[in-house]
Amino acid sequence: MTAIPGLGSPHLASPELLRSVFRRHAAGVAAITASGESGPVGFTATSLSSVSADPPMLSFGIGTGASSWPVISRATHVGVHILGEHQQALAATFARSGADRFGAPTSWRDGPHGVPVLDDVLAWLVCRVVARVPAGDHRIVLAEVVLGDPEGAGRPLLYHQGRFTALRD
Q: Model confidence over 49-75: pLDDT tens digits?
């Protein structure tokens, strides 16, 4: 493609182009949890988004190849946890394939509707899943907030340029 004055050389759409652009986008880090027949599952998500205030709804994306997808695909309720900058190790554990996400040192408890609730997070919600929308190799999960706690202390954990980081003043 030809360079566009003032904009550089555009690239054709590809998975790598999308990944490259979104590496430059700083995103908050959340951990999504659910309970399955074989125990709790969870994963790190940077795709969390508020959808509606009335009723209170949110969305997040999950790959259909993710180890947590089989449970999330059937879960009636999920936990959504906003991670703090002090939780980089937890975020990395929940992002790593094959990790024992709920073993020590992860601190958690059984919450409402059987949802695993992580301790020491900035905020958490328990949500009722209302839809799973196909989106390429992912599903966008729409969930209505049932209850939660916004009172955790600290500053948010961010994901930028392929690594977890914190806000700077």
A: 999 999 999 999 999 999 999 999 999
The one-letter amino acid at 137: D
Element (H, E) at 60: strand 56-63
Q: How far is CA 17 from the centre of its chain?
A: 21
Backbone phi and psi for residue 163, each to the nearest 5 degrees, phi listed first: -145, 160
Q: Is 113 within 8 Å of 145 (Cβ atoms)?
A: no
Please choose, from the candidates 76, 91, 104, the residue with its C-alpha nearest in 3D space to the C-alpha of residue 46. Answer: 91
pLDDT reading at 3 higher than 80: no
Q: Which residue has the tokens 């900058």?
A: 85
Pull the structure tokens for residue 151: 């009172």
pTM: 0.92
For the chain, where are the alpha helices, taking DSSP H only? 15-23, 69-72, 88-95
For residues 35 and 97, the model is more confident at 35
Q: Residue 4: pLDDT above 80?
A: no
75's tokens = 């879960």
Q: How far apart are alpha carbons 82 and 137 in whole angstroms?
A: 25
